[in-house]
Specification:
With 79 residues, the protein is mainly alpha-helical. The protein contains four helices and no strands. It is globular.
Length: 79
């Protein structure tokens, strides 16, 4: 399993209090995990801390699945 995916799952699980093993690339933040805008902001802050990147909030607001968030992380860390 991808190391970045595992780190992202750990961040999400910590913020939302869910089992990281239940998270897949297709898991949606709002429908599947019940995350609200404050939860998403906390997840973004966790991503920024873990990867030492700055996530564009406008771009992040369009992310709906864990897979999209992972692509965002990979793009931010490459840039």
């Amino acid at each position: 399993m991808d190391e970045d995916f595992k780190k992202l799952c750990a961040i999400i699980a910590d913020v939302l209090g869910v089992d990281p093993d239940e998270i897949t690339m297709d898991t949606t933040f709002d429908e599947d995990l019940g995350a609200d805008s404050l939860d998403i902001a906390s997840i973004i802050m966790g991503i920024e801390d873990e990867y030492d990147v700055k996530v564009d909030t406008e771009v992040a607001s369009k992310v709906t699945t864990v897979g999209e968030a992972l692509a965002l992380i990979k793009g931010a860390s490459e840039g």
